[in-house]
C-alpha cells in the first residue's frame, strides 16, 4: 500500500534512524507506532561521539584498513579489532568487507554517499525548525591532533581523495603550539594538527531523547516490546500481528534478523564501539580527534568529555570487553591534558551496523509494504535524519528519491 493512501506506519527501532523516519512521516500526516525492545536511544544512538561531519563521512572499507595487517587486527588494543571466530556469517562479512577495501571500490561507494552527505544538515535544520530543542553545535574549533607531522600526512591524503571524489572539506594545517593555543586540552605530545571547518556536533543521547519526546508529543505510540515477527500483506505489513499500511525495519545491527526474509541479502554486522566520559580541566569547545589512535572526543551538555573509539567485529550483544576500554585509556591519557582517563564514568559499548560495502540500506524490500533503513556504520547519527526524510518521502509518494538509488536494500 506504500505510495498509495498511507495512513499508519509501524517502525521497528527507536534509535536516530527510526525516530527520524517517524518524525518526517508525521509531517506528512501519517500516524506512527514505534516498537523497540528497550526504549528510545538504547543502542548505538546513545554512546557514540555525536559528530555531524559530512566532510568526513566515508565508507569504512578502505585500503588503509588492510594495511593494519592481520596481526594488528587480531590485537585487542588495535583500533580495528577482529576477534578469532568460526561464525559463518561473520566470516562471510569479513571476506566481503576485505574485497571492498580497494581504491576503486572505495571511490564508487564514496560517490554513492555524497548525495546523502550533502543533504545531511538540511534534515537537521528541518528538525530544528520543527521544534527539536536539543542544540546542534557548530564544530568550531574541530581539531585532529598528531604526535608528528609525518603521522598527519595520512589524513591529509585521505582528504585529498575525499575532495577528488566530489565531497567538499575545508581544513588548515597547524603546529602543536598553534593547536594548543586554540585547544588547551591537547597535551605537549601533540606536535601537529589539522583544523577542520564546516562541521557540527551534538550530544547524541540528549538529542535522540529530545527527538523521541517530540515524536511522542505529536501522537506516536511507543511500544517497548520485542518484535517477534514482521510479515508482508497484500496492502502493507504486520508487526507482531498488527496491521499497518507500511512497515519500516530500523533495528541497527540486528537488521538482518527481520529484513532477510524480504530479500535483503547485504550482511549487517555489528561494528562495536566503546566510550566513557571524564572531567576535564579545560573542556574542549568542540570535537577533538586523534586519528592515529582512532580516538574521538566530544564535549557533552553535562560538562563532561566523551571519549569514544574502536571498531570491534563481534556479536552485537556480546559482553563488554574491558581490554577495549583500557586501549582507549592508554591512547588518550598521554594526548589529553587536564583529564585523567582512569577516573571515568559511563562506560558503554554499542553496536554500529556495518555493511561490507560501507553503504547504508535504505528503501523498499521485495515486499511493497516493507522498508528497511540501517547499515550506516559510524554515520547513523549524521545520516539518520536525512534517511528518515527520504524514506518517508518514498513511503508516502511511492517514488524512490534519486539519493537512494545506490543504497537499495535489494542490491547484491
Q: Could you please describe the fold and organization of this structure?
A:
The chain has 412 residues and is of the alpha/beta class. The protein has a single domain (8-407), classed as FAD/NAD(P)-binding domain (3-Layer(bba) Sandwich), CATH 3.50.50.60. It has helices at 16-26, 63-67, 70-73, 88-99, 103-129, 149-165, 176-182, 204-217, 255-259, 322-333, 380-397, and strands spanning 8-12, 31-36, 51-52, 80-81, 137-138, 143-146, 170-175, 192-197, 200-201, 221-224, 230-233, 236-239, 242-244, 246-249, 269-278, 288-290, 295-299, 305-313, 344-354, 361-364, 370-374. The strands form four sheets. Strands 4, 6, 7, 8, 15, 16, 17, 18 and 19 form a nine-stranded mixed beta sheet that branches. Helix 1 (16-26) runs parallel beside helix 8, helix 1 runs parallel beside helix 11 and helix 5 crosses helix 11.
- CATH architect. name: 3-Layer(bba) Sandwich
**The CATH class:** Alpha Beta
Helical coverage, percent range: 25-40%
The number of E-state strands comes to 21
DSSP helical segment count: 11
Radius of gyration: 21 Å
Shape: globular
For the sheet with most strands, the description reads:
9 strands, mixed
Draw up the topology in text.
Layout: E1 8-12, H1 16-26, E2 31-36, E3 51-52, H2 63-67, H3 70-73, E4 80-81, H4 88-99, H5 103-129, E5 137-138, E6 143-146, H6 149-165, E7 170-175, H7 176-182, E8 192-197, E9 200-201, H8 204-217, E10 221-224, E11 230-233, E12 236-239, E13 242-244, E14 246-249, H9 255-259, E15 269-278, E16 288-290, E17 295-299, E18 305-313, H10 322-333, E19 344-354, E20 361-364, E21 370-374, H11 380-397
Helix pairs in contact: 1-8, 1-11, 5-11
